[in-house]
């Protein structure tokens, strides 16, 4: 039984890395406000999406999940690719979309 508890505790300790509620993607091909708006609308329609922010200058798309929902990285990447853009990188983050937006706006 001790081995089971240790394995369970170890599994739970690593869980936050996989349960991030925000994804940050680097997307190539966005060149105008119309591009950003198109991606934003497509991602916002997805069931688990609470908030979306697209920053053209930094080629960043940030997606935050609704409470109790999980973001599907493959589905999001497919949605962006279907819109005609290339997802170069996608990573979970502990920042909210609002925090990412504020951070990127401060860079300008």
TrEMBL record:
Residue ranges occupied by any HMA domain in the UniProt entry: 21-88
Gene3D superfamilies (alphabetical): 3.30.70.100
Keyword annotations of the record: Signal
Pfam families linked: HMA
InterPro entries to which the protein is assigned, alphabetical: HMA_dom, HMA_dom_sf
Top-level lineage group: Bacteria
UniProt keyword Signal, yes or no: yes
GO molecular function, one term: metal ion binding
Keyword presence, Signal: yes
SUPFAM superfamilies named in the record: HMA, heavy metal-associated domain (SSF55008)
Annotated signal sequence range: 1-19
Official protein name in the record: Heavy-metal-associated domain-containing protein
Native source organism of the sequence: Caenimonas sedimenti
Lineage: Bacteria, Pseudomonadati, Pseudomonadota, Betaproteobacteria, Burkholderiales
């Amino acid at each position: 039984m001790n081995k089971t508890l240790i394995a369970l505790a170890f599994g739970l300790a690593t869980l936050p890395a996989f349960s991030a509620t925000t994804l940050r993607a680097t997307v190539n091909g966005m060149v105008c406000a119309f591009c950003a708006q198109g991606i934003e609308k497509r991602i916002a329609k997805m069931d688990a999406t609470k908030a979306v922010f697209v920053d053209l200058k930094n080629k960043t798309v940030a997606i935050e999940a609704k409470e109790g929902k999980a973001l599907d990285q493959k589905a999001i990447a497919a949605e962006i690719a279907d819109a005609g853009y290339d997802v170069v990188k996608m990573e979970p983050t502990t920042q909210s979309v609002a925090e990412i937006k504020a951070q990127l706006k401060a860079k300008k």
